[in-house]
Write a structure and sequence with these properties.
alpha/beta; Quinone Oxidoreductase, Chain A, domain 1; Rossmann fold; nine-stranded mixed sheet; elongated
Length: about 775
């Protein structure tokens, strides 16, 4: 009582608070509500597991603190709780009539064993098996008047359906069914199926069951109580109407009421069993209603709790009758339990309910197999997201041989062999020097020669790498101490130099993209295949720790089926970039040429996103449509582009990118599915929301991951290629990956030129290397 008074006081002043203070107040109240109530009401606090809906359409099983029993309460160690599909689905979806506030703890029917009896309670003792108004939780604190002792002949599972049985019994009693009166039960969910059986016990005959499909006919007929079964369509076709003494409306859909009225005879009764799931207005003259029709509202809240008035049964009478019918074997419920599950499966079972699983009559949660009561979780230093990141990186370590130093937050490459891959470096510009230093950071490869067509750049490259310079490309290919070449050269040189290297028997490590166009990419793949050498393309962003985490999240189905992908890639590249890269180390105008570069922001930058999203999601781009242009750059290639695409699973995607963005650079990727969504920012920060519990992540709330170990992803790319060669195993990034990337890019460019959507070309396995 004091707890309720405190709530009222807070509500009185809530309207004067700002939205921010209101939100903070809600969070604070949720944290302090149980401790404050425990102090004010002088009650204990106990821990239990319970099913909770943190937000609409999301279910979870979590630990919770609840108030211990008061003097008039009984505490029950719960064995089973039964789902009320109609009510709980409407509440879960946030429909109009059963509107609730989230977070919400559902359930109101269960069974178990008494573990504590309040000092003012009589009629119960510790160890009694009881059933009654129990939420979906491992412990229930219930007023004594809401509990019933279970007869020895009745097991705990069917007894868990007691509240549903009471709902139906009081409705049938209000219908005043006499022996031999015809009954039509409209709706064959759990309430309808129970109504069939209890109407039979009450003496109704014949009993006709009606539903929208025949999927539940077998369960309704025979021992299910019904004599006949019709779909609504069959009923209309046969003209079966205006003839039933009693019509029981058990769908919970207020819109069905006129139809139910039309099926009753003159002077008949229509019983609204339970609460309608939507608000509706009723015109008693609508739908062919017969004269003298009696409309009866039957709801459990209208029942007297204790003293029986003349001719009226109480809540306790109906509950005891339900258990007596089970004990006598006159009522069987086993076949109505279509789903038996443990509480940790709450997310899955409520997802089935949310989407309208036609096979579900009711579900039983078995709390005897849940985590023990009083559970306490070890306080971790890391957040759940940090723990998941660590787990993902350890998985990568097992798969790829990473050495993870979590103390220093670094990932170090390891080499399970002593052989070094000897690499000749070709190209010493911005990317070339970075790639070459990536070789030096590995333990599986080394630089044995260097070449650049610019003598000044070559001299500096050789000095920084401590490698011998060579006068020309042919001389580098002729060296016996060169096993592979790393090509970091302008795009138009990728095909001729890669093909030349393959013909010389050298493996090829190629800077992205593979080629200026798809034709060049095909020539490179086929040449390497013919020469029997390995080919890989520098799509090393795959090895960013955040991408490894995202890949595992998607593989673990935390997002459900991927529905959409959005990429935003906004930056500024001034005239100096197009003339010589970021540093001007190797001046050249090739980046500004459509013929030499193949394109602008798409082929130079977005090619990475195309690859790593394919890697992370496992989806292939099937069709694209694009628009692009050059607006603020002294170039022939595009500096702004927008792309729409469709993936092979039906998901859709959109991409916006520009090199004339004057604000703070922004890179953001959003991926969302049927059960969750994630956002990657700057390839460093991750936000994830899911309707599913996964490891340490609670569903229905957003989690953030901002700190991950740093990794030299270029070194990782080279390291793994060297290890794959040493073990004669395929590398993760092959010529096929580079070719597919070029195919998506070419389709995007073609779409703009042809002014319609374009299908992406598919890779032929004969080209694979």
């Amino acid at each position: 009582m004091r707890n309720q008074q405190l709530k009222q006081i807070l509500k009185k002043y809530e309207a004067s608070f700002s939205p921010e203070l209101q939100a903070l107040g809600v969070q604070t109240w949720r944290a302090l509500e149980v401790p404050l109530a425990a102090v004010l009401e002088r009650r204990s606090i106990v821990r239990a597991r319970h099913i909770v809906w943190p937000v609409a359409e999301v279910a979870d099983c979590d630990s919770v603190r609840i108030l211990g029993p008061s003097a008039g309460d009984v505490m029950v160690k719960v064995a089973f709780t039964a789902m009320s599909p109609g009510t709980e689905r409407a509440q879960l979806l946030g429909l109009t009539n059963p509107r609730i506030n989230f977070p919400f703890s559902p359930g109101y029917s269960g069974s178990g064993e008494v573990v504590f009896v309040g000092r003012k309670v009589s009629g119960f003792k510790i160890g009694d098996r009881v059933a009654g108004r129990i939420k979906h939780a491992s412990l229930g604190v219930v007023e004594a008047q809401g509990l019933f002792r279970i007869p020895p002949e009745v097991s705990l599972e069917p007894a868990a359906l007691i509240e549903l049985g009471i709902i139906v019994l009081q409705g049938i009693r209000k219908a005043c069914i006499k022996p031999g009166e015809s009954v039509l039960v409209l709706g064959q969910g759990l309430i309808g199926q129970l109504a069939n059986r209890l109407c039979r016990i009450a003496g109704g005959a014949p009993i006709v069951a009606v539903a929208t499909s025949r999927s539940r006919a077998a369960r309704a007929l025979g021992k299910g109580g019904a004599d006949e079964f019709f779909t609504v369509e069959e009923l209309n076709c046969r003209g079966v109407n205006n003839g039933f003494d009693v019509v029981i409306e058990a769908t919970g859909d207020g819109k069905v009421l006129p139809f139910a009225n039309s099926l009753a005879r003159a002077g008949g009764r229509v019983v609204l069993l339970g609460s309608p799931r939507s608000l509706t207005s009723l015109n008693l003259g609508q739908g062919g209603c017969q004269p003298g029709l009696t409309l009866i509202g039957a709801h459990i809240s209208g029942m007297p709790q204790r003293d029986r008035s003349h001719g009226q049964w109480t809540y306790r009478d109906e509950g005891q009758l339900f258990l007596d019918l089970l004990a006598q074997g006159r009522l069987s419920l086993d076949d109505l339990v279509t789903h038996r599950c443990v509480p940790s499966q709450a997310g899955e079972i409520y997802e089935s309910l949310r989407v309208g699983d036609s096979g579900m009559i009711t579900a039983i949660f078995d709390w005897s197999r849940s985590a023990p009561n009083g559970i306490r979780f070890k306080k971790e230093r890391d957040t759940p997201m940090q723990q998941i990141a660590s787990s993902s990186l350890r998985l990568s370590k097992r798969l790829f041989g990473w050495k993870v130093d979590f103390k220093e937050k670094k990932i170090l490459p390891t080499t399970p062999h002593n052989r070094l891959l000897r690499i000749g470096v070709v190209g010493g510009g911005d990317i070339g020097l970075k790639n070459a230093k990536g070789i030096q950071a590995t333990r599986a490869a080394c630089v044995t020669a260097a070449f650049d067509s610019n003598p000044i750049v070559l001299k500096d490259l050789a000095r920084q790498l401590n490698a011998p310079p060579v006068p020309d490309y042919e001389s580098l290919l002729a060296r016996p101490d060169v096993d592979a070449v790393l090509l970091s050269v302008p795009h138009m040189l990728h095909a001729p130099l890669a093909i030349q290297a393959a013909q010389a028997g050298k493996h090829v490590l190629l800077e992205k993209p593979m080629g200026v166009n798809l034709q060049d990419a095909t020539r490179i793949v086929e040449s390497c295949h013919k020469a029997g050498v390995r080919l890989t393309v520098n799509f090393s962003f795959r090895y960013l720790p955040i991408l490894q985490v995202v890949r595992e999240l998607i593989r673990e189905d935390i997002l459900g089926k991927v529905c959409g992908i959005e990429i935003n890639h906004l930056m500024f590249k001034g005239a100096s970039y197009w003339a010589g890269g970021y540093t001007g180390r190797s001046p050249s105008s090739w980046r500004a040429s459509k013929e030499k570069a193949g394109g602008g922001i798409l082929i130079m930058g977005l090619c990475h996103a195309i690859d790593y999203l394919r890697y992370a999601t496992g989806l292939e781009v099937k069709r694209v449509f694009s628009e692009y242009g050059t607006f603020a750059s002294p170039v022939e290639v595009e500096d702004t582009i927008a792309v729409n695409c469709q993936y092979d699973n039906g998901a859709v995607g959109s991409t916006t990118a520009s090199t004339c963005w004057r604000g703070t650079p922004s890179q953001q990727v959003r991926i969302w599915g049927t059960h969750g969504a994630l956002t990657i920012r700057e390839n460093k920060r991750l936000s994830i929301w899911s309707a599913r519990r996964w490891r340490g992540l609670s569903p229905g709330r957003e989690h953030h991951l901002n700190k991950l170990p740093e990794v030299d992803y270029t070194a990782e790319w080279i390291e793994r290629f060297a290890v794959a060669l040493a073990h004669d195993e395929p590398h993760e990034i092959t010529g096929q990956d580079g070719w597919i990337n070029n195919a998506v890019i070419e389709a995007i460019y073609c779409s703009r030129e042809q002014a319609h959507s374009v299908e992406v070309a598919t890779f032929s396995s004969t080209k694979e290397v």
